[in-house]
């Protein structure tokens, strides 16, 4: 019998009539505390029906403490991010940014128990109407859904997740560009070529361009520019057309080739050590990854997933480039970084973009929207074209689908070699085509010539 009830009265809960004539329902919960209905009822039967529903929740184990549901979403989500296990540093930064930028300003002050699907739908519409991209809105929605799912399943603060907007968490990202084999080698060549010249800001706030021609003489471009970017674009165009001299630095050539033909992530390729590369067996061992935080801190940690720990076969065509790089740029110690910044530390994205002038390079290549990660996408696409099994491809890429990739990894060594040999055949075919075209007087594709 529930506490406070008299013989012959209700076995669960209590109903009393208020001075206003409305009925108030309350009950003693499993925690021993009395809880009141969030509203009064016009009829006693309505109060009885509400108590019956609560009793059924208590009996089935679905009851949640309504007092705990009074915590505000912003506070709960912030603690969720702080306590969520196994989140990578960059992921933590992204979640905190999404919460601060897109979730908290609209829903942060709302109590968990008062969130509704209609409220979530209105929030999502507000973001889209404010100009937030569909992709970013989907990311924010997925974070909110994950936070509230914890409130339902683990903390039992809510009985159901109000994030029920169909399709709201789905991203329809544009297809990323992929390169041909010839373009990969051309990119590897271009990232080390930089035009010789300088851009100077004048007292008029305009920019003057000077560049070096082939005979070593510096010349001034006849017109000035409103921005430095415009001047730099013209400088690169002069080099592209052969009017400006260029200097070449091959320290990032192997970096590009390895990222593409071994399908490596940025953090994986930048964390490689001398001992990870076996030029005889033609393999690269991936055992760690660098993460660069928003404050510039570099963190060496585990790979993105357990399947990221892998050994990848590489085509023979890029081995000479790796050997040359190891001899020229890498210290002899086994744990020396293979690719570094100009000062010898881990290579940063900002340093990479500055050294290569990436935007100018990919524009000259004819693929202006190319991101570095698209090199991995290119390698994955080329590998998939070899016709190997999905499990083999997943292992090479370092993807973990319910641990299936790890389970089949020991079986995929031979098939992984097939991928590398297939990539090697593509390179050799490009070379042969280039030789044939050169024999006919054509410039040919930009690939290494033995």
Automatic annotation (TrEMBL):
Protein origin, superkingdom: Bacteria
PROSITE patterns in alphabetical order: CB, TYR_RECOMBINASE
Database matches in CDD domains: INT_ICEBs1_C_like (cd01189)
Keywords for this protein: DNA integration, DNA recombination, DNA-binding
Stretches assigned to the Tyr recombinase domain: 220-421
Stretches assigned to the Core-binding (CB) domain: 71-152
Pfam families: Integrase_N_phage (PF26003), Phage_int_SAM_3 (PF14659), Phage_integrase (PF00589)
The protein's name: Site-specific integrase
Native species: Actinomadura graeca
């Amino acid at each position: 019998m529930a506490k406070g009830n008299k013989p012959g009265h209700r076995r669960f809960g209590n109903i009393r009539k208020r001075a206003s004539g409305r009925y108030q329902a309350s009950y003693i919960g499993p925690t021993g505390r009395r809880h009141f209905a969030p509203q009064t009822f016009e009829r006693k039967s309505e109060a009885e029906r509400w108590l019956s529903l609560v009793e059924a929740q208590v009996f089935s184990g679905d009851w949640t403490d309504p007092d705990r549901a009074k915590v505000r979403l912003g506070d709960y989500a912030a603690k969720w991010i702080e306590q969520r296990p196994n989140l990578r540093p960059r992921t933590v930064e992204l979640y905190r940014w999404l919460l601060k930028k897109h979730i908290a300003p609209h829903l942060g002050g709302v109590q968990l128990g008062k969130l509704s699907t209609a409220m979530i739908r209105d929030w999502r519409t507000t973001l889209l109407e404010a100009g937030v991209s569909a992709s970013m809105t989907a990311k924010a929605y997925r974070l909110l859904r994950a936070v509230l799912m914890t409130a339902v399943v683990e903390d039992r603060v809510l009985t159901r997740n109000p994030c029920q907007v169909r399709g709201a968490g789905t991203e329809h990202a544009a297809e990323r560009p992929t390169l041909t084999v010839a373009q990969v080698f051309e990119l590897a060549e271009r990232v080390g070529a930089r035009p010789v010249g300088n851009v100077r800001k004048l007292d008029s706030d305009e920019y003057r361009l000077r560049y070096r021609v082939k005979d070593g003489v510096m010349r001034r471009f006849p017109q000035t520019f409103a921005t430095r970017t415009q001047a730099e674009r013209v400088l690169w165009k002069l080099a592209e057309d052969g009017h400006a001299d260029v200097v070449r630095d091959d320290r990032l050539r192997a970096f590009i080739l390895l990222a593409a033909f071994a399908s490596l992530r940025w953090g994986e390729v930048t964390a490689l050590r001398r001992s990870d590369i076996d030029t005889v067996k033609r393999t690269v061992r991936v055992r760690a990854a660098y993460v660069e935080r928003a404050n510039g801190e570099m963190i060496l940690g585990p790979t993105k997933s357990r399947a990221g720990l892998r050994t990848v076969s590489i085509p023979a065509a890029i081995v000479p480039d790796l050997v040359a790089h190891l001899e020229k740029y890498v210290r002899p110690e086994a744990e020396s970084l293979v690719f570094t910044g100009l000062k010898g530390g881990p290579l940063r994205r900002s340093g990479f973009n500055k050294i290569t002038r990436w935007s100018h390079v990919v524009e000259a290549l004819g693929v202006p929207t190319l991101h570095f990660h698209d090199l991995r996408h290119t390698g994955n696409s080329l590998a998939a074209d070899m016709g190997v099994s999905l499990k083999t491809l997943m292992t090479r890429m370092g993807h973990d689908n319910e641990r299936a990739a790890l389970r089949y990894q020991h079986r995929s060594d031979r098939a992984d070699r097939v991928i590398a040999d297939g990539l090697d055949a593509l390179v050799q075919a490009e070379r042969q085509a280039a030789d044939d075209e050169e024999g006919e007087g054509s410039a040919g594709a930009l690939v290494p010539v033995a």
